[in-house]
Design a protein that fits this description.
Length: 458
């Protein structure tokens, strides 16, 4: 009888222990790790110097004096240097008549370089990849770019494949979120995330100021990221994803239309940036932080901010500075999207960040420009090359994109990092003493020109 009673107790207990073990094991295999990443750096023959940029501008016969002055101000204040990269067709003088093949060639150069390098460094075969996510917003091909990757590397036919288009500069974290969700229901998997942008068919040759600006900011680039949820590979991993938050304000008309691809009055296609962009970006940023902050900050900071906000609200005098939440209480490094100097300055002011915090984004904008969704990984590469990333550090990534979207995530650094990646040839010279763009020195005479007598330079 006693044995029977013991058995009655033992069976439910065993079942509970089994379910508990299964739950813990499932949680262990739902982690998302970055094993390695590889940014793309074109050859030196694709660098946009001041001299060549001036030639490109002079080739555009649709520009007048006012457009020249606008471009001069935009380039000088952009925060971009002379070593950024442009598509090959620009150097062949074909920006007014790009072909579909130009866009495909631009993508193939990046895909063949970065994917091969990241797989080789990790010792992973293309046939080992279980999930492939490719995001390139402004180039659609049939078969898809994801299919080109599969064909190029002869990957398995049972892969989970996602090809993202039209998601803009925030697409990298959307791709990470897709991988994160797949890892929740699939054990011991490898995922390859590929992010870039095709500028070849999207170089604007008209004179609409809101569309010319994109030419001043966007540059060629891309990144391949290898991720896994294999617990056995944790010791080799670089980062572990802690949390990710996506905010989409497409329901607001001003947010939806503030940056989009459109035709100008002459039918020339370009990327339009509206003057309401800063306002809509701020709104999305604030809403994203409202969700993210409780996930990454200690209770003491959340309590402090709540008390200060409440006291200010109840106070009769509502002047003075608004309370700012201190993200540094839960974050060690800030990986910001290089949307432009104004974007970096705005985030820095909103979060009360120091120049040390903003340096990686500023230097990435100066060296590589805005490489769209891949820009976050160049910023990350700068931090690593400067040996800032130490085991246990928390890294906050934030990006913005058309739609309008604001996406952010928090990574934990799993080991001390110091690889130079694409910064190998120049990291020792950064940050430079002077970030002034030489355009004003060379083309400043445009400001003194008389509109009635101005002629386009030969």
């Amino acid at each position: 009888m006693d044995n029977f009673l013991h058995l009655l107790y033992f069976l439910p207990l065993s079942y509970l222990l089994f379910k508990l073990f299964k739950l813990i094991d499932q949680k262990r295999h739902q982690c998302c790790y970055i094993l390695d990443y590889q940014c793309y750096k074109p050859g030196d023959d694709r660098k946009l110097s001041t001299e060549f940029s001036g030639e490109i501008i002079k080739r555009n016969k649709n520009l007048g004096l006012y457009e020249y002055k606008f471009l001069l101000r935009a380039i000088v204040s952009s925060g971009i240097g002379e070593q950024t990269y442009a598509p090959e067709m620009i150097f062949h003088g074909r920006e007014t008549c790009p072909t579909f093949e130009d866009g495909i060639t631009e993508m193939d150069e990046f895909l063949n370089d970065s994917i091969e390098k990241v797989l080789a460094r990790c010792g992973v075969s293309p046939s080992d990849i279980d999930v492939l996510v490719v995001n390139v917003s402004m180039l659609t091909s049939i078969p898809s770019l994801a299919a080109r990757v599969i064909n190029r590397y002869k990957m398995r036919d049972d892969m989970k494949v996602y090809n993202l288009t039209g998601m803009g500069c925030s697409a990298s974290l959307i791709a990470v979120n897709i991988v994160q969700n797949i890892f929740k229901c699939r054990k011991n998997a490898y995922a390859l995330m590929v992010t870039s942008e095709s500028l070849s068919p999207n170089w604007y040759t008209g004179n609409d100021r809101s569309m010319i600006l994109a030419n001043c900011l966007f540059r060629t680039g891309g990144c391949a990221v290898l991720m896994t949820n294999k617990v056995a590979l944790k010791s080799r991993a670089m980062f572990k994803l802690k949390c990710l938050v996506r905010t989409h304000h497409g329901a607001y008309d001003d947010s939806f239309s503030c940056c989009n691809q459109r035709e100008d009055e002459q039918g020339r296609v370009g990327f339009y940036l509206d003057k309401t962009l800063p306002k809509t970006a701020t709104r999305a940023f604030v809403d994203n932080l409202k969700v993210m902050s409780p996930k990454i900050l200690p209770v003491t900071e959340l309590l402090r901010f709540s008390i200060v906000s409440f006291l200010r609200k109840m106070s009769e005098s509502k002047g003075g500075l608004r309370p700012v939440i201190n993200l540094k209480t839960g974050v060690d490094h800030f990986c910001l999207h290089t949307g432009g100097k104004a974007v970096i300055d705005g985030i820095g002011q909103s979060l009360n960040l120091s120049e040390y915090d903003l340096e990686p984004a500023r230097m990435t904008l100066h060296r590589f420009g805005n490489t769209s969704a891949s820009s976050l990984w160049y910023v990350l590469g700068y931090m690593e090359a400067k040996k800032r990333l130490k085991r246990g550090d928390k890294l906050f990534m934030i990006s913005f994109g058309a739609g309008f979207k604001c996406n952010s995530c928090l990574w934990e650094v799993l080991r001390d990092l110091g690889d130079r990646n694409v910064w190998d040839d120049c990291i020792d010279s950064y940050p430079p003493e002077n970030l002034t763009n030489p355009f004003m020195e060379k083309y400043g005479w445009i400001n003194d020109e008389d509109p009635s007598t101005f002629k386009v330079p030969e």
